[in-house]
Specification:
The protein has 222 residues and is an alpha/beta fold. The protein has a single domain, classed as Flavodoxin domain (Rossmann fold), CATH 3.40.50.360. Helices cover 32% and strands 21% of the residues. The chain has six helices and nine strands; from the N terminus they run αββββαβαβαβαββα. Strands 1, 4, 5, 6, 7, 8 and 9 form a seven-stranded mixed sheet that branches. Strands 2-3 form a two-stranded antiparallel ribbon. α5 links the parallel β7 and β8.
Length: 222
């Protein structure tokens, strides 16, 4: 995937994109930016739709909230090798979205594959290791997690816990949802990829987005 293709995949609201010389996002003065990351290899499908719902709800919390949806479907990059990557891959296009500037909050979503996160999600989380040195760039930022499964009890909460555990390595503040989905947002892909028909799941995604926005605003106030 080249730079132009990636920019076309990133759905932005309240932000401006520049692709020269590097991909960057700059919000308005005083903006509190929240980034949602869909870690499904299926571009524009259920996980991306759920992340979008969470971000839309986040924007309703306060006019200062701006959002960026990063759909990683179709991206090609490997996991962490234990040392800096020598060869460039699609993660080089993703990384600027997460540190130029550093977002005030993250919402990460993954489909459930064999009761675990997707391989793409695992690679993404591993590659975030570059944000841990020389200092923890994501430290003290709120992170919320959602998962989409083929069954109502298909392992969504296991995936949420796996992603939350990884983000604790960045000293991020784990943010849950609101009743009845306290751990995060759990969605059920029962209706042939129309995740909006899962009213319970979509509502849990919206509540998660609101909670992350509230936490991000408290951070910004400091």
């Amino acid at each position: 995937m080249d730079r132009r293709e990636f920019v076309g995949k990133v759905l932005l609201s309240g932000t401006a994109v520049s692709v020269a010389p590097t991909l960057s996002v700059a919000g308005e003065a005083g903006a509190v930016r929240i980034v949602g990351v869909s870690c499904s290899p299926r571009e524009g499908k259920t996980t991306a739709t759920a992340i979008k719902a969470a971000l839309e709800e986040a924007k309703k919390v306060d006019k200062r909230i701006t959002t960026t949806l990063m759909d990683l479907g179709g991206s090609n990059f490997s996991g962490w090798t234990g040392q800096p990557q020598k060869d460039k891959d699609d993660f080089d296009l993703i990384l600027p979205q997460l540190r130029d500037p550093i977002p005030y909050g993250l919402i990460i979503g993954s489909p459930v594959y064999f009761r675990s996160m997707s391989a793409l999600c695992k690679a993404f989380l591993e590659r975030l290791a570059v944000l841990r040195k020389p200092k923890l760039l994501l430290g003290d930022k709120p992170v919320g997690v959602l998962a989409v499964g083929s069954y109502r009890n298909g392992g969504q909460e296991l995936v949420i816990e796996q992603i939350q555990t990884a983000m604790l390595c960045h000293k991020m503040m784990v943010v849950g949802g609101k009743p009845p989905a306290l751990q995060g947002a759990t969605l059920w892909n029962k209706y042939k990829d129309d995740i909006t028909k899962d009213e319970f799941g979509i509502e849990s995604a919206r509540k998660l987005g609101a909670r992350v926005a509230e936490a991000a605003l408290r951070l910004a106030a400091k």
